TrEMBL record:
Protein name (Swiss-Prot/TrEMBL): FAD-binding PCMH-type domain-containing protein
One Pfam family from the record: FAD_binding_4
InterPro entries: FAD-bd_PCMH, FAD-bd_PCMH-like_sf, FAD-bd_PCMH_sub1, FAD-linked_Oxidoreductases_BP, Oxid_FAD_bind_N, Oxy_OxRdtase_FAD_BS
Keyword Plastid: no
Main location: secreted
Organism lineage string: Eukaryota, Viridiplantae, Streptophyta, Embryophyta, Tracheophyta
């Protein structure tokens, strides 16, 4: 039994890669987006892995943007820092190998933008198109287009992920 447990542990340890990195400058919390940053363990732990469960990497903070300008402020701040830190957008976190993680940096929870109205606009003219925010689920885009008797031609086979 003990031997079986240690073999299982060794397999898990070799599969799970844990990424650790630097950190964010303290003056990030002096920016106007500071009130939308969460640093509590629940928030950072929730953004430390993805659906693949292969890579684990904790961010130092999670941003819940109210507008795209909040994201721009964060990215500008990181880019102009002496040591830029990772910033990663996260939709539903269904990626397989840590693509939505920001080791030691800031994860932007794009779903926060979904509460804003008017982020899916369907143009049903002669050349129909949809203009939608990157936080929108394919399921919600489909719902909006169906109201016009239209549907996108190409799909993922699971619709509860972001565009
Ligand atoms: C077990 C498994 C099965 C899967 N099966 C399928 C399948 O059958 N069909 C299929 O199509 N896909 C499949 N996928 C892949 C998955 O659908 C994609 O990874 C998809 O991008 C996940 O969407 P998300 O909203 O969860 O994105 P996230 O995982 O949150 O992010 C994915 C990537 O996009 C970036 N990103 C997120 N939001 C934005 C934004 N607004 N602007 C710019 N970049 C952004 C992230 O930083 C990250 O790099 C599967 C994945 C897994 C783990």
């Amino acid at each position: 039994m003990a031997a079986r447990c240690s073999i299982a542990f060794m397999i898990m340890a070799s599969c799970l890669s844990v990424v650790v990195s630097g950190g964010i400058p303290g003056n990030l919390f002096a920016l106007s987006v500071a009130s939308k940053l969460r640093v509590d363990r629940n928030s950072t732990a929730g953004a430390s892995s993805d659906f693949g469960r292969i890579v684990a990497a904790a961010p130092e903070a999670v941003l819940h943007p109210a507008t795209p300008a909040d994201i721009a402020e964060l990215v500008r701040f990181s880019a102009s820092s002496p040591s830029p830190f990772p910033v990663a957008p996260r939709g539903q976190g269904h990626s397989a190998r840590g693509q939505s993680l920001a080791p030691g940096g800031v994860v932007v929870d794009m779903r926060a933008l979904a509460s804003r109205r008017g982020r899916v606009n369907v143009s049903a003219g002669a050349a129909p198109y949809v203009d939608a925010g990157g936080e929108q689920l394919w399921a919600d885009v489909l719902r909006a287009t169906l109201e016009h008797g239209l549907a996108p031609r190409v799909w993922t086979d699971y619709l509860r992920i972001t565009m």
